[in-house]
TrEMBL record:
Lineage: unclassified sequences, metagenomes, ecological metagenomes
Residue ranges constituting the PurM-like N-terminal domain according to the UniProt record: 37-156
GO biological process: 'de novo' IMP biosynthetic process
Protein name (Swiss-Prot/TrEMBL): PurM-like N-terminal domain-containing protein
Start and end residues of each PurM-like C-terminal domain: 175-300
Organism of this sequence: marine metagenome
InterPro entries hit by this protein: PRibForGlyAmidine_synth_PurL, PurM-like_C_dom, PurM-like_C_sf, PurM-like_N, PurM-like_N_sf
GO molecular function, one term: phosphoribosylformylglycinamidine synthase activity
Pfam families xref list: AIRS, AIRS_C
Keywords: Cytoplasm
Length: 310
């Protein structure tokens, strides 16, 4: 039931907004990758060797988390957005944001506003990624539900794109989980983000908001960039898939990496590295602990990836 509520949530499945999203154009002569994976990719230039260079863009909202725990809600929004862009094989170059808050004369609105702004800076600054702009509006209609939208930009050469799914002929490939040890933070976050906020439940919902660690993410970004270069040199870019762990944690990441290519996956939760004792197996599988990624690769490549990160 937990897994069903996560996978079937608006946050993961877009079940109620899909019909509206279909009204947007998602293809064109410069669209390399539309609404299919962790981030969109648009061609912007061709160099003198004929290589097409692309901008990678991802955006997402962290509205409910920011309304309840403003600093952590906004900070983890930045972190997840950055990971979405990076896992496409791109170098992250900039962030921006769009905010809608309630009446700024209200003490609660000011508390949310100050926390969100601090959270954006508190995560982006350690990463060394500039925030290049944004917009901000106040209206009493947002008193009880702010809008916090984060946008991240990256750059990648078209033939260096890493996809968010298993490559062809991936039968028997390995799934590799890396990053922060799994804990119970953010458990049920996708379901929470899809519900209507209720005042009497805000305190108990705080546990559904993830905990940020920007300095760990900085190390993961740098080490992953270095691995990208190794994969390019060895001609292995098309033999791997790479995905951020966001909503639904290990469950959603493994499903999306495998199912898109027509596979299922066996997940050995006893091999997941854990940051706290006494967790139920459902937490191992569905926790939304931040600063995590998952690779899918041939067993021949697995030792190289493990050695690189370890």
């Amino acid at each position: 039931m937990i897994l069903f509520s996560i996978q079937g949530s608006e946050h993961c499945s877009y079940k109620s907004s899909r019909s509206h999203l279909k009204q947007f154009a998602t293809d064109g002569p410069d669209v390399v990758l539309g609404a299919k994976e962790d981030a969109g990719v648009i061609s912007v230039a061709t160099d003198n060797k004929g290589h097409r260079w692309c901008v990678v863009m991802s955006h997402e909202s962290h509205n409910h988390p920011s309304q309840i725990v403003p600093y952590e809600g906004a900070a983890t929004g930045v972190g997840g957005n950055v990971r979405d862009v990076m896992c496409m094989g791109a170098e992250v170059i900039a962030c921006t944001d769009s905010f809608r808050f309630g009446n700024i004369k209200n003490n609660k609105t000011k508390w949310i506003h100050d926390g969100v702004v601090a959270g954006i800076a508190g995560y982006g600054n350690p990463l060394g990624i500039p925030n290049i702009g944004g917009d901000l509006y106040y209206h009493e209609g947002y008193n009880e539900n702010c809008l916090v939208t984060l946008v991240t930009l990256g750059i990648v050469r078209e033939d260096d794109i890493i996809h968010s799914y298993a490559p062809k002929n991936a039968d028997g490939f390995d799934l590799i989980l890396l990053g922060k040890p799994t804990d119970n933070s953010g458990f049920g976050g996708a379901s929470f983000a899809s519900l209507e906020l209720e005042d009497d439940k805000k305190e108990q919902n705080k546990g559904a908001v993830q905990e940020p660690n920007a300095f760990l993410e900085r190390h993961l970004l740098k080490s992953s960039y270095a691995l990208f270069e190794i994969l390019k040199e060895k001609g292995l870019i098309e033999q791997v898939g790479f995905k951020d762990l966001g909503a639904g944690g290990v469950a959603c990441a493994s499903v999306e990496l495998a199912e898109t290519s027509g596979y299922g996956a066996e997940v050995w939760i006893n091999k997941i590295h854990i940051g706290m004792d006494g967790l139920h197996p459902s937490v191992y599988l569905c926790s939304e602990t931040q600063e995590r990624f998952m690779w899918v690769c041939s067993p021949d490549i697995t030792p190289m990836i493990l050695d690189h990160y370890n």
